[in-house]
């Protein structure tokens, strides 16, 4: 089985990936951050051929090369390099907008793969990101969440419909319900679903520099904007950068 877990950083991707891998009996592994290179190479190819073909003569090689065949060949080599490390059965976790934007490549190369999108309300996500990554600016934390969620929103609707969205707070509050949804999406039998439920009720791994990550805190009511440990200027920045995306995904500010 091939499973791809994506989402904004600090949205529960680690817990999902660890739980699914354990239920499948796969060895532990870290984040991938490799397969999105396919999208980067696509962009480079498009820019190159667009620029050169606009100024090159009709008999030049650049006009005659099959750029689409070249793209397919590169995609295949990326898949082969990926599987050389991950194997044919894996649970891949790469948080961030780059991985979400590269999901069309995933669907192309692994048509039977299952995709799980981890979601989290923007306010809790930014609070958690700032504690996990103290070197981040407030604006960077806001943009990290917004860019990932917006990338998901702009994704091909067919890919989104075939994927499963999992809200991190629901995973903490309703582990049995979420485990059943994830297990159903992956075709798990009852014993593996029970393993997911147990995993969703505890920490994914030891953490020292976080706040909104423990099960107890995730089970608390959402933090209203006025109750955040932010300055008024930071709250205004959050509303400006994250407000429209919060609304698009049905997350309230209060």
Quickly list its features.
single chain; four-stranded parallel beta sheet; globular; 14 helices; alpha/beta; 254 residues; 8% strand; 59% helix; Rossmann fold
| Oligomer status | single chain
Which consecutive residue ranges, at least 5 long each, have pLDDT under 50? 204-212
In CATH, the topology is named Rossmann fold
Helix content: 55-70%
Provide the succession of SSEs.
EHHHHEHHEHHHEHHHHH
Radius of gyration, in Å, reads: 20 Å
Structural class designation: alpha/beta
Distance between the termini: 40 Å
By CATH's scheme, which homologous superfamily applies? P-loop containing nucleotide triphosphate hydrolases
Our count of helices gives 14
Question: How would you explain this protein's 3D organization?
Answer:
The protein is of the alpha/beta class. It has one domain: 3-Layer(aba) Sandwich (Rossmann fold). Helices cover 59% and strands 8% of the residues. The chain is built from 14 helices and four strands. A four-stranded parallel β-sheet has the order 2-1-3-4. The protein is globular and about 65 Å long. The relative contact order is 0.17. About 4% of the residues have low confidence.
Summarize the topology.
Elements: E1 2-7, H1 13-24, H2 37-55, H3 61-64, H4 67-86, E2 90-93, H5 97-101, H6 103-109, E3 114-119, H7 122-132, H8 138-153, H9 157-162, E4 164-167, H10 168-173, H11 175-186, H12 190-200, H13 215-218, H14 232-248
Parallel strand pairs: 1-2, 1-3, 3-4
Helix pairs in contact: 1-12, 2-4, 7-8, 8-14, 11-12
């Amino acid at each position: 089985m091939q499973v791809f877990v994506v989402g904004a950083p600090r949205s529960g991707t680690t817990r999902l990936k660890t739980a699914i891998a354990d239920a499948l009996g796969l060895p532990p592994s870290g984040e991938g951050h490799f397969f999105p290179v396919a999208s980067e190479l696509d962009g480079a190819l498009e820019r190159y051929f667009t620029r050169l073909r606009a100024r090159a003569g009709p008999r030049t090689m650049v006009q005659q090369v099959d750029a689409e065949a070249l793209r397919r060949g590169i995609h295949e080599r990326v898949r082969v390099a990926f599987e050389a490390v991950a194997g044919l059965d894996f649970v891949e976790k790469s948080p961030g907008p780059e991985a979400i934007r590269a999901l069309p490549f995933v669907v192309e190369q692994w048509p039977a793969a299952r995709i799980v999108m981890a979601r989290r309300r923007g306010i809790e996500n930014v609070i958690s990101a700032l504690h996990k990554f103290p070197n981040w600016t407030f604006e960077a934390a806001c943009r990290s969440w917004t860019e990932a969620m917006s990338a998901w929103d702009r994704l091909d609707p067919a890919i989104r419909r075939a994927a499963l969205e999992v809200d991190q707070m629901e995973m903490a509050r309703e582990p049995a319900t979420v485990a059943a949804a994830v297990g159903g999406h992956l075709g798990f039998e009852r014993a593996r679903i029970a393993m997911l439920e147990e995993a969703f009720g505890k920490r994914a791994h030891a953490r020292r520099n976080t706040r909104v990550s423990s099960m107890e805190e995730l089970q608390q009511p959402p933090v209203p904007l006025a109750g955040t440990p932010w300055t008024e200027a930071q709250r205004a920045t959050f509303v400006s950068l994250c407000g429209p995306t919060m609304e698009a995904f049905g997350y309230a500010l209060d």
